[in-house]
Amino acid sequence: MIVSTKGRYALRVMVYLAQQPLGTYIPLKQVAEAEEISQKYLEAIMTILSKAGMVEAVHGKGGGYRLNRPPEGYTVGSILKLTEGSLAPVSCTAEGPAACSRSDCCPALPMWEKLDRMIDGFFESITIRDLLTGT
Amino acid sequence: MIVSTKGRYALRVMVYLAQQPLGTYIPLKQVAEAEEISQKYLEAIMTILSKAGMVEAVHGKGGGYRLNRPPEGYTVGSILKLTEGSLAPVSCTAEGPAACSRSDCCPALPMWEKLDRMIDGFFESITIRDLLTGT
DNA sequence: TATTTACCCAGTTATCTGGTAGGTAATATA
DNA sequence: TATATTACCTACCAGATAACTGGGTAAATA
């Protein structure tokens, strides 16, 4: 499994926020209820997105989260990489320092690298707007 | 991570067997030593491949494993599906009965399905021969 | 000051990964 | 026939990860 609930929840929140009136802050509680996701779990996810500058967060009453770019400004890849850490389908291509000792003679390595690039290209070619419009 | 060591070890064994003199049975011990893989762990993997008819196994002295098809007769996908169980990158497309309750309105589902088909097509288009020759 | 919100940290339960241990069954050779 | 060699079977285990939960603190507003 490449993408866990963490990344999928993040995408759902971004899509949800993209559907809200422009500029308004949406409290997490509302998102969690609408999307039927554990609010506590979402908190951790949103903090990641907030720290990375993907969303704007405002404390206190009337606060919450909102997007700071148009939906087409977010690629699915950028959100998943943040929340999942990596999208590498095999550890062979994921780790830099802890590289496989057989990497110089591994007959499968080129395949993994190709797959890696393919998956990255796939996710980078899709934006939140595409998810909204079903393109 | 889509592919764990289990699937990667299976591929390595198949490549190793493909490099041996035609028709000879190779004991697991030899494979494990040459590939530096835990023999006990490999046993479990080879039993899966053997039961599925991917390799021929012969007990006793002079026995071992050998391929029963030419290397181009094995797709990487067929081996990985056996050993990994599934290559689905998200649980959304993996489970049949335990399907997601939001699948009918999920804006991301088409994306997951497309990715699923892409990955499947990728692995099915590569054979053990391709790994051998580096094609 | 009280309430509402985001944010931080620690623990929990279940599942999966990558093994290990200790056998049994089948086959060949001496 | 005895012995060694091989595949195969069952069970267990330690560590990591996923997916939460609980109990706070900090910031902002009414």
Biggest beta sheet summary of chain A: 2 strands, antiparallel
Helical content of chain A (DSSP H or I, runs of 4+): 40-55%
The beta-strand count of chain A equals: 2
What is the global morphology of chain A?
elongated
CATH architectural group of chain A: Orthogonal Bundle
Tell me the structural class of chain A: mainly alpha
Find the biggest chain interface: A-B, 30 and 30 residues
Radius of gyration of chain A, whole Å: 17 Å
| Contiguous helical run count of chain A | 7
What's the rounded overall pLDDT mean of chain A?
A: 94
CATH top level class name of chain A: Mainly Alpha
Count of domains of chain A: 1
Regarding quaternary structure, how should these chains be classified? homodimer
Q: Strand sequence of the main sheet of chain A, in spatial order?
A: 1-2
Q: Can you write the helix and strand succession of chain A as a string? A: HHHEEHHHH
Task: Please tag this protein with its features.
homodimer, 135 residues, mainly alpha, Arc Repressor Mutant, subunit A, two-stranded antiparallel sheet, elongated, DNA-binding
